[in-house]
Amino acid sequence: MNTKTLLMVAFSCLAANSASAGTNTWTTGWAMGTTEYAVDDGNGNELVIACPSDDDRYVSASATVNGRGYSSEDGRGFDLIVDGKTFHNPFYTDCRACSSIFTHEFWGALRNANRLQFSAQGKVFNLPTENLKAVLPALNDENNSCLAAW
Q1: Would you indicate the residue range of the signal peptide (predicted)?
Q2: Which of 6-10, 17-21, 43-47, 130-134 has the lowest mean pLDDT?
Q3: Three-state SS at 126
Q4: Any bridge partners for residue 70, and if so which?
Q5: Other CB atoms closer than 10 Å to residue 140's CB: what's the count?
Q6: What CA–CA distance (Å, rounded) separates 81 from 94?
């Protein structure tokens, strides 16, 4: 086999193992050293949490809402509303206060959420919580690679 064919096969296998959001239920997958937790609402609105296993990379998240992409690493990012409490760009943890909120408030609230909403640019969308606690590990779980930057 030539190198090009081997690379195509390798990338196809990696793509097949990444997390694909389950419609109306949380799912998990692993690809390229990153555990991903994902959900979509069946209308193309999706949230993906990325937790790299490298010690020098930290938790991040991306969302697609009405065809528009958002990232916790871009400018304003996006907000999540968990059971009525708004967390401003909660996956941005590259400041001491941000990291503290993520670690001590947000993650536990997210795992136990009964109602989850995405908010950006004045628009709010509901996201499913089915299977959330079963899929998303506690921060102190030894298998959880979702680390805050601070």
Answers
A1: 1-21
A2: 6-10
A3: strand
A4: 63
A5: 6
A6: 20
* Residue (of 57, 132, 139) closest to 105 by Cα position: 139
What's the pLDDT tens digit per position in 71-100?
999 978 999 999 999 999 999 999 999 999
In the DSSP assignment, the letter for residue 116 is E
Convert the pLDDT of each residue in 19-33 to its tens digit.
556 689 999 999 999
**109: number of Cβ within 10 Å:** 15
Distance CA 130, CA 2 (A): 45
Tell me which residue of 75, 29, 30, 116 sits closest to 106, measured CA to CA.
Answer: 116
Question: pLDDT > 70: what percent of the chain?
Answer: 85
Q: Which tokens hold the place of 40?
A: 């979509």
Q: Which residue from 113, 136, 117, 135 is spatially nearest to 127, judged by alpha carbons?
A: 117
Residues recorded for the chain: 150
Spatial distance between the Cα atoms of 89 and 9, rounded to a whole number of angstroms: 37
Instruction: Determine the average pLDDT of the residues in 115-122.
Output: 94
Beta-sheet strands, E only, within the chain: 22-23, 27-31, 34-40, 46-52, 60-65, 68-71, 79-82, 85-88, 116-120, 123-127
**Tokens 């001590």 map to which residue?**
104
